[in-house]
Write a structure and sequence with these properties.
heterodimer, A: alpha+beta, DNA Polymerase III, Chain A, domain 2, 3 domains, eight-stranded antiparallel β-sheet, 6 helices, 27 strands, 43% strand, elongated, B: alpha+beta, Dna Ligase, domain 1, four-stranded antiparallel β-sheet, 18 helices
Chain lengths: 373, 450
């Protein structure tokens, strides 16, 4: 098996899938890329047994079809240090030797048997629908940040895809905050729910083009498959029930606070410097149309206060939130202004952008910090 | 600070921190109550005075004596002996079941007396206290006279409860001084007389030196405390293997290493020894677990803390045991929730290892420890399984207990098996008994269980 490929093209494709490979693997073959040559098409695959990612590229002067596993680290390190030039791969599948020749030299490494590489789950009995790459990318961007890292609650370590006939809702939560992002321009074949782990979504975020390329999403009870013309990803779904998130979204928050998004983020960033580093507590003291943000760290005698103009309808109130979570949430919203819907200092606040984007609906929920309950 | 936020200062008023560790050349008075639990019983039950008594945790011939009276000690009865063994040494010994609340009441009164002479008082345990007199050198000219005055005050309040007082430049030597003369002793150790006192002692007379440490010292040629005091730091380091040797050098050369400031609670633990009668019933053992968890809940509520980790151990009469650690996704304060997680873990183990019940009739002791605390003033509640209401109710319940007595309101779980849940040992509870002005925190600890 032999082919010629440009070093930068190969590196770029490998970088797109290399994130799948885990740093600590038990099987040495999981540290490898699977190279499969068929005609002039080279298919590269990486997996960590949970997620499998595959990308295709065209190569030149291909001779013979074949498959081999090539250690990822040494290959990537080599390609990163090579200026752009064609490389000739000569692979002997019998003794598993790989020779890479470039303008400047020849390099030889040992591979592993392709048959040892994990097989891709069979996408039999799946339900499919289409979504544009940009729509999926945006949905991931809007929700992934709020995913929990707590392995004790596995359902929260992924994004919940709630499929309906006329919409798809992406929900993520870490139990303290919740993001609900709904797209109404996508129709799904059935009402269903899947919890997709964080890692494949991170991979998709790093790989998907921000354009209208159509992707096919297929799923069954255990796996999700994302396919485009040259890229495919399959991942195991989280086998746990996503919490009943709708039950915790308050429907009767009567007070409305409207504030400039950028001013609010800037003020929060400044104030949080003075907040306690463990709790990141920032107190929002809303008095008429004045919003005072304050924070303190008693251990170091730090204190900060800042006034911000706002529009507010409701009773004056004082409520505390974790500034770090709030900054992340508001940064992931669009538009010039945001609205915070509140009821009491012990109940969750709802954050929404004022400006509505067509076919999109964003709702974020944040639990306050209990100030001396 | 927001109006609802509690002032942080209140949490710093703790018995386990004072300024002794900071001051070089300090002067410390150590008060050690003699046969404390037994003396308290004899104080409040005059018919027991002058008689050998043994305080036990429960009423059983197999019970261990946790505190023999001075009269019983004369017969050779020692702490920790089984009642049946004690009877061989002292056939007339009278077993008395412990009443921790009583010992706490006396403890608080004695602390009040000590605090009337010096504000820097540290309760080392329910029957020991350390007073830092370093900054009172000008206030009191003669500290031996002061000690006599304290003894007199205690005598006036409780005529049958005696104490030994030691005065020295550090707490270790002051504690040693209390050991030199018992009961009702008063000894001052100074740089001038320390050698004289040490010359009369064996190595094992020093608190903290027992069999193994004695052997270590003898191996390097140190046969008595006097030699130990004059040994070089390097030699002691060699004997004890590092920093411990340095500490011993400090202790015997008037530096303070045993008291240190610790403003943050790192761990809370509680354990119970189980009698044969108790271990015969699985239900009783489970009730004991509830009582352990309830004790920790009380302490967390009072200190305004939630824990994120817990560990549980169970020991069997066959000298085997089992322990487990649990990390909580959401901080925990509630006793029943703590118990639920522990039971879940136990059941998991029972099923996976097919070992039958862990709460067998062979259980000898069990204990729960909690750590990784977070302050309740900045608690981030969960959107799901929100427990704000329960937390508010729990806090209110303890406020009511403090105000109107511990039995004014009780959880159903506490009533299930009240005799088992009865609080048995008061050694560690001083951590929860803080004197703040005229008030005592956790007032309910001073009340009798019903």
């Amino acid at each position: 098996m032999r082919f010629i490929v440009t070093s930068t093209a190969l590196l770029k494709n490998l970088q797109q899938i290399s994130g799948v490979i885990s740093a600590n693997t038990v099987l040495s073959v999981l540290e490898d890329f699977l190279f499969e040559l068929k005609g002039n098409t080279l298919t590269l695959t990486a997996t960590d047994l949970e997620t499998m990612m595959r990308i295709q590229l065209d190569v030149n002067d291909a001779q013979g079809n074949g498959r081999i596993c090539i250690p990822s680290k040494i290959l990537m390190d080599y390609l990163k240090n090579l200026p752009e030039q064609p490389i000739t791969f000569s692979i002997n599948e019998q003794d598993l030797s790989i020779e890479m020749s470039s303008d400047v030299g020849k390099y030889r490494i040992g591979g592993e048997k392709a048959d040892d590489f994990p097989k891709e789950p069979a996408p039999g009995d799946t339900t499919s629908f289409n979504i544009s790459s940009i729509a999926l990318l945006e949905s991931i961007n809007k929700t992934l940040f709020a995913v929990s890292t707590d392995t004790l609650r596995p359902a929260m370590t992924g994004v919940y895809f709630e499929l309906a006939k006329d919409s798809i809702t992406f929900v993520s939560t870490d139990a303290h905050r919740l993001v609900q992002f709904r797209r109404t321009d996508i129709s799904c074949p059935a009402q269903d729910g899947l919890v997709v782990p964080k890692k494949p979504l991170q991979q998709l975020r790093a790989t998907l083009p921000a354009d209208d390329t159509q992707l096919q999403l297929s799923y069954n009870s255990s796996h999700l498959f994302v396919t485009s013309s040259r890229l495919s990803l399959s991942c195991r779904l989280i086998d746990a029930r996503f919490p009943d998130y709708k039950a915790v979204i308050p429907t009767d928050n009567p007070y409305r606070l409207t504030v400039s998004r950028n001013d609010f983020i800037s003020a929060l960033r400044r104030i949080s410097i003075f907040a306690n580093k463990t709790t990141n507590q920032v107190v929002l003291d809303i008095n008429g149309n004045a919003l005072q943000l304050s924070a303190q760290d008693i251990d170091f005698s730090y204190e900060g206060k800042e006034m911000l103009s706002c529009q507010y309808s409701g009773e004056d109130m004082k409520i505390a939130f974790n500034a770090r979570l709030m900054i992340e949430m508001v940064s992931n919203m669009d538009g010039a202004e945001i609205q915070v819907e509140l009821s009491t200092p012990t109940r969750a606040g709802i954050f929404r952008p004022i400006e509505k984007t067509e076919n999109e609906e964003v709702l974020m929920l944040l639990m306050p910090l209990m100030v001396g309950v | 600070m927001t109006p609802n936020q509690k002032p942080k200062q209140s949490k710093n008023v703790r018995y386990d921190s004072n300024s002794i560790a900071m001051k070089p050349g300090s002067l410390v008075m150590y008060i050690d109550m003699n046969s404390y639990f037994a003396s308290c019983e004899q104080q409040f039950r005059p018919e027991l005075r002058g008689k050998p008594i043994g305080v036990t945790t429960y009423d059983s011939p197999h019970a261990a004596v946790i505190a023999p009276s001075i009269e019983a000690k004369k017969f050779g009865v020692k702490t920790g002996m089984r009642l049946s063994d004690c009877k061989l040494l002292c056939p007339h010994i009278i077993p008395v079941t412990t009443r921790p609340y009583l010992y706490r009441i006396v403890h608080v009164e004695i602390m009040r007396i000590l605090q009337s002479y010096c504000i820097d008082v540290l309760a080392k345990s329910i029957d020991e206290a350390v007073i830092n007199l370093s900054s009172y050198r000008l206030v009191y000219k003669d500290f031996v006279e002061l000690a006599k005055k304290i003894k007199n005050d205690i005598y006036n309040k409780y005529d049958y409860i005696k104490c030994s007082i030691g005065i020295a430049p550090n707490s270790f030597l002051a504690k040693l001084a209390t050991e030199l003369q018992k009961p009702d002793g008063l000894v001052q150790i100074t740089p001038e007389n320390i050698d004289h006192h040490l010359a009369t002692l064996k190595l094992t007379d020093l608190p903290g030196i027992a069999g193994r440490n004695e052997r270590r010292l003898k191996m390097i040629g140190i046969d008595n405390p006097l030699q130990m005091r004059h040994a070089s730091q390097a030699l002691l380091r060699k004997a004890f293997g590092g920093i411990v040797g340095y500490y011993w050098h400090c202790r015997l050369n008037f530096s303070e290493v045993d008291l240190y400031s610790r403003s943050q609670t790192r761990t809370m633990s509680t354990m119970r020894t189980v009698s044969r009668e108790q271990s015969a019933s699985k239900q009783t053992l489970e009730s004991l677990l509830v009582s352990l968890c309830t004790r920790l809940e009380q302490r967390m509520v009072k200190q305004g803390l939630f824990c994120r980790e817990a560990s549980f151990f169970i020991k069997y009469r066959s000298k085997t045991g089992w322990d487990t650690s649990i990390r909580f996704a959401q901080p925990v304060q509630d006793a029943l929730e703590l118990r639920k997680y522990i039971l879940e873990r136990i059941h998991e183990f029972e099923q996976s290892h097919n070992v039958g019940t862990m709460f067998s009739n062979q259980v000898q002791s069990m204990g729960v420890a909690i750590q990784n605390f977070m302050d309740d003033s900045a608690l981030q509640y969960s959107l799901f399984d929100n427990r704000i209401q329960q937390d508010v109710v729990r806090k209110t319940m303890y406020t009511l207990k403090d105000k109107y007595g511990k039995n004014i309101v009780r959880k159903g779980s506490e009533l299930f098996n009240p005799t088992v849940m009865k609080d048995a040992i008061g050694f560690g509870s001083v951590k929860d008994l803080l004197l703040v002005g005229d008030d005592v925190t956790n007032q309910y600890l001073l009340e009798e269980d019903y």
